[in-house]
Structure formats: structure tokens, C-alpha cells
Amino acid sequence: MKNFYFALCAAALLVGCNQAAPDTSAPTVSAPAPAAVPAAPAPVDSAAKAVGGAPAPAPAAAPPVLREAETLKLAFAFRPIADPDNPGQPRTNARLLLQGAKPQDIDLGKFGGQPDVVDAAKAKLANFPAGMVMGFRSYQASSGTSQDLAVLHVDGRYLRIVQRRVEETAAEPGVFETAREIPLPANTRVVAAPGVTKK
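The chain above was modelled as a monomer; its predicted structure follows.
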């Protein structure tokens, strides 16, 4: 019995001696390396110059600012004047008034009698120019002659003043001819002012 006990103790010692220490030589897993930080993008000018060494194209120019439209009002002004050569037949000085940012007073000349402003219906019957802004007819009974005047707005850039003489005995009325032209700023709207000024 004593021999069996000793044998059992010896076996237990052998088992304890054969237990290996934990293997510490196993490779350890290293922490992943930090990802590389991407480089900052190059400025636009540098990137443009890097391609073929050409300078960066200039930015597109801003579109031009259109001038604000101006409304120009037109009116006639009539003033009776004496005619030294014919005191019994008064004459009239006609003027064209431009009412806008830069007012103008334009002398249209002297006419016989009192000019009659022509409306659209009268202008059509008397064959005034189509599309005129305003006009008038002056009739002198002593000579039987009429003088017609019309104001046109041409190409949006200037006023054209045209005139003609109409003889009562003529088969055909005279032809309108350009008396003068008045330049206007671009983008100008022209309208006839109501009424007539008498001076």
C-alpha cells in the first residue's frame, strides 16, 4: 500500500513538470499604420500653369449693364409773331420741346396762320409719314399754301423732322423732305405729350 502511494505521488509530480509554460514567442499583431493624409489640392492658378506652362485664362468679363430706358416727351409750342412785310397776315413761330433728362427747345421756323396739330386720323387722310410721333399743318389762306411738318423717331437713335409744301392748285401734294435730325441716347422711348403750349 505504501508503494502504491509513492507511485501515485511520483506520477503527479511528473505531470506537473511536463506542463509547458505559455508560449510567449507567438508573433503579436501590430497596430495598423495610420493612413497617409492626402496632399492639399494645388491652387487653381498653379494647376493651370502646370499644364504646358501656360498662364491661367482670364475670367470672363461681366455682361455690360444696359442703360435704363428714358422716356422723352415731345410737345409743340406756338407763338404768334408779326410779319413786317405783311402786317395783315400774322405768322407763327413753332418750336419743338423735348422734355426729359436733358430738356431742349428747338426752333422749327415761321409758319403762316395758326398751325393745326394733326391727330392719327387727319395724318392718314393727309398722307403724313406712317409711324410719326406727332405733326402739324399750317395753312395760309392768302397764298393757298399749306406747310406740313412731322416728327419721326428713327431706329430708336434720333428724331427726324420732315417738312413739305402743299399747293392748292397742285395735282399731287409735295414730298416730305428731311429738315434736320436730332441724336438721342440709346434706349430712349419717345412719346407725344398731351396738349400744345402757346407762348
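Strands lie at 70-81, 91-99, 104-112, 116-118, 134-140, 145-154, 158-167, 177-183, 188-192, 197-198.
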